[in-house]
Structure formats: C-alpha cells, structure tokens
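Milestone 3.1: sequence recovery, worked example.
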C-alpha cells in the first residue's frame, strides 16, 4: 500500500496548455544559466529514478551483459564509434544498462508521465483506496552536455565492461584503461599519486548527460538524451594502487530539481488525447510496427459501438411455413394493435412502447419470412434489456418470450385469413 503524494511543493498539470505555461515560466527563471533543461516522465510517482542495471542486482553481472552480445553477435555492432554507442543500442533493445532515458522535449516527458499504469492501493485517511497512480515529470539543469567520445564518458563505459569483482584495485583498473588506450602512461602515473588520484575518482563518481549519436529513429523522434550513471565507490587505503573500486547503485532523485510536475491519475487520458493534437503519441514516438498498430487501436477506440452477442438462429422464433399470401400492411397493423395486450404477461408495462418500436422499425416486405430480419428483431430486443439490466441471460430470456408472442400473433393472423378463405 502506497502513501498519498505530498504535493505542497509540486506543480499540478491538468492539461497540455497548463504544462506549456509552466515550462515557459521555468525557462524564464533560468537566471542566465547556460545549461539546458532535461526532462524525464514516469507514469508512477513512487518509482525510484534509476537505470535498469541498478535493479534486481543486475549490476553484479553488468560486465557479462556488456561483453557477451559483442562476442555472440559482433556484426550487429559493426561500425560503432564508441562503447557508449554500443550501450545505446543495448538500451534500445531492452538490455539492462546504466543509462537513464531523458529528453529535451518536455511534451515527450509529459507523454510518458501520462501512460496508464493500472490501479494501485493507496492509504487515504487510514483507509485503503485503489486508483491510478500520479504521473510525474522531473527536470534538471545541472548538466552541460557531453559527447560519447569524451574522455570521461569513455572511462565510465569502460568500467561498466570490467569485472570489478576481481580486478578491482585502482592500479589494476588504470592498467586496463591504459591497455584499452583510454589513458596514457603519464596520466596513469599521475593518478596513482595520492595528490592526484582525486581527479580520477571525480571522473568515476560523476554522472554525465550524454547526447547520443542518433543510431535509431526512436531516439531522434523522442529528442532523447541519456544520463550516464557512474556511481563507483572508492575505498582509499594506505596505498593508492591497492585502493578498491566497487560498482554501486543509488537513487538518482537528487540529480533532479526537488520541485517537479505531477499529474493526477484521472487526468492522464485526457492529456494523452490533447498531446495527440500536438502529434505526440505512440505512433510518432515509436516507429516500430507494434507501436504503430497499438496507436491505431487506441486512436479508434472512441468510435466503437455496442456489438450484439452471437445468437444461433432458431427456426421456431417466427412462423416459417406459410401456405397463404399475406397482406403485409394488414399483418403489420394487426401485430401492433395486438401487442400491447399480448405482451402484458411477458414484459413490464414501461417496456411495451419500446418493444413495439423495435419490432415496428423492422417491418419490411415479408419480414416474418426473412431469417435476417427476425434475427435482427431478436438481437435488438436482447440489447435493449441488456443495456437496461446488464444481465445477458435475462435479456436473452426476455427476447425469447417476446419472439414467442410475436410468433403466435403471426400464426393467429394467418389462421384467421385461412378460415375466412382470403
């Protein structure tokens, strides 16, 4: 059970226009800073802000997740300029990485914040309440953009590939970085000194906002950027060379402004429909076929109409074996005149007028002989009672009873004509 979101210091968003206005104010309050604004939308307010590699102890096997695909399917990564580009492709296809998805487009972040999660249980005034969680949009302007080819980014992504459960001292790690041509001898020697090792530690404990090479269309459509989480703990001993480096995890919430945006669960769907008007939807943000089809289904859901449940045709619903020629107008008038009296024992008085209307609306030439018309009458009556009582079996029973009366009245009319010799 989750606690209600404390919203005192937060900004509520109930429409796209209110969000745009809030973003405008946010940009105007930048006080001349040259750093950009980066946004992250999450559909649930109680989730931590963390890359997927920090979950479920996957960090302990990060080195395997980084190395094995390169060994098994090297052609998939042919021509990649950096290990960061490889990590970006991993992220695209659902592999756990230390990358956190962000965007420079606030409307894209709002879209992800408004995704429908499903009801969760909350504690409200000491009672349990089920509802759709709040969506949240976080933002930060604490970063200058980095590039995949920057030295610090290359070092952090290299450490992600190393197995630090074994070769985990500063001396061993610097040897590997030298072997991978990421540092030179002079840098290595400098970082092994106590007075300069802080420069290295600062690199591997700082997070980086990296503008990726747009190797896939999804990144481009979403104006995607990545927060590269570093988070390497260092235990300095008497010797810098033998000091231990450990892969560690942390909630990245402090990387974002404490004041952020929130969306009530009941407003999510209306905002998604508004975003669609701005061409922000699943189809525009995700070029893959499955997302294109999902969007088509979502966009057309509002045009659905009630559909009748399958009912197998039964020949005895209305008389089918007629040996006389019937005047349709006379039969129709007879049915309408007799129905009120005959239906009193079958349906409630308040329903008779609507039943007569449903039957009369299907009067066409030889309707009593045509299977499709008889089925249509029965289905119309069934749907009327289902809409009224929400009980499918009861609705079917009512329809069968009314069709039996209709059948009897058609027979009675025909028999009267036969006796009179008409």
């Amino acid at each position: 059970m989750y606690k209600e979101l404390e919203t005192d210091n937060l900004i509520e968003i109930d429409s796209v226009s209110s969000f745009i206005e809030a973003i405008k104010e946010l940009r105007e309050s930048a006080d001349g800073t040259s750093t950009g604004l980066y946004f992250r939308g999450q559909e649930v307010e109680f989730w931590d802000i963390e890359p997927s590699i920090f979950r479920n102890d996957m960090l302990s096997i990060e080195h395997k997740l980084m190395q094995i695909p390169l060994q098994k399917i090297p052609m998939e990564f042919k021509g990649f300029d950096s290990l960061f580009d490889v990590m970006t492709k991993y992220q695209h296809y659902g592999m756990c990485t230390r990358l956190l998805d962000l965007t420079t487009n606030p409307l894209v972040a709002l879209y992800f914040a408004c995704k429908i999660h499903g009801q969760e249980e909350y504690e409200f005034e000491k009672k349990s309440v089920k509802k759709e969680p709040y969506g949240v949009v976080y933002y930060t302007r604490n970063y200058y953009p980095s590039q995949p080819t920057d030295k610090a980014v290359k070092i952090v992504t290299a450490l992600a590939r190393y197995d630090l459960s074994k070769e985990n001292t500063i001396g061993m790690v610097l040897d590997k970085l030298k072997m991978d041509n990421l540092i030179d001898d002079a840098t290595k020697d400098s970082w092994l000194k106590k007075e300069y090792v802080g420069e290295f530690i600062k690199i591997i404990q700082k997070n980086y906002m990296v503008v990726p090479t747009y190797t896939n269309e999804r990144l481009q459509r979403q104006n995607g950027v990545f927060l590269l989480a570093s988070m390497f703990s260092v235990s300095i001993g008497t010797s810098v060379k033998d000091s231990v480096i450990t892969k560690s995890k942390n909630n990245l919430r402090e990387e974002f402004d404490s004041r952020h945006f929130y969306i009530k669960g009941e407003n999510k769907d209306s905002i998604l429909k508004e975003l669609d008007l701005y061409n922000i939807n699943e189809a525009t943000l995700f070029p893959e076929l499955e997302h294109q089809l999902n969007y088509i289904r979502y966009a057309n859901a509002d045009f659905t109409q009630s559909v009748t449940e399958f009912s197998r045709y039964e020949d005895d619903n209305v008389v089918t074996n007629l040996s006389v020629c019937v005047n349709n107008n006379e039969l129709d008038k007879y049915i309408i005149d007799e129905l009120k009296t005959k239906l009193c024992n079958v349906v409630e008085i308040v329903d008779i007028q609507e039943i007569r209307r449903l039957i009369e609306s299907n009067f066409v030439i030889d309707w009593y002989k045509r299977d499709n018309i008889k089925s249509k009458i029965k289905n119309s009556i069934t749907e009327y009672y289902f809409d009224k009582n929400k009980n499918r079996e009861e609705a079917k029973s009512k329809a069968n009873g009314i069709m039996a009366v209709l059948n009897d009245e058609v027979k009675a009319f025909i028999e009267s004509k036969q006796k009179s010799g008409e």
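The chain has 16 helices and 13 strands. The longest strand covers residues 135-140.
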